[in-house]
Structure prediction request, 269 residues.
Amino acid sequence: MRIIERGNLRVEFIDEGKGPPVVLAHSSVSGNRQWKRLIERLQDRYRVLAPNLHGYGQTTAWTEDGTQTIDAAAEVLLAVCEELEEPIRLVGHSWGGGVALATARILGARVSHLALFEPMLASMLREHGRREAWAEASALHADVKRLGGTAQWDALAKRFTDYFNGEGAWEATPVDRQKAVAALLLPNYYEWDSAQTPTTADSFANVSARTLLMRAADTRMVMSQIVDLLSAAFPNWQVIEIPDGGHMAPMTRPDAVNGAIAAFLDVPQ
Prediction:
């Protein structure tokens, strides 16, 4: 792991390989090590940088004095990208997908490729009138704030795991893994605040990167409809759907997901 510091911001990140830079943004309740297999797949031809986002590893945690918007979270990726040579390739999953998309909006033409697996941009559902999906996302947000606000981390870990991995997933999880998930939930408490910031698909209209959107056929309605909204707004973006694996497919189906991402990144600008 390497560390960079920018003012009050401290960012811990993996830095492997040589070549054009690829920056990876992990999902909530995870960390940069979720990309271990993808890093191994890319490092023979790319310099791969995988930061821990706010509150993960040794990266500066978010504090309670202010809402963590997607753009605010992007400061971690921006710090990593600051001194990289162009073109930059960005990859993100879930919360990290939303952060990567916001980063691409800020960096503009500096980003050549953008690969997103089910980016979490819940407020888009409200702004675009997807009432059923927004109600589902809001219920999860309310539980994150209720259970996290009273430090009921085990109960929240069960809710989170069963929602994103399927009902019964928590009970099937080994106890040591249950403890690890519960310990990683604090950053998610602040990440969900981004759902209160109005966001529409066309707010990303200045993203000039070649873009890949991925989802699993068996994912939750919330994530599937976010992909629908983005693909409708940007018909030039490539969309790939894998048959199964759910929202956590980058971890549960890494070969299918990583193969598609690697092939996409290798396409000339």
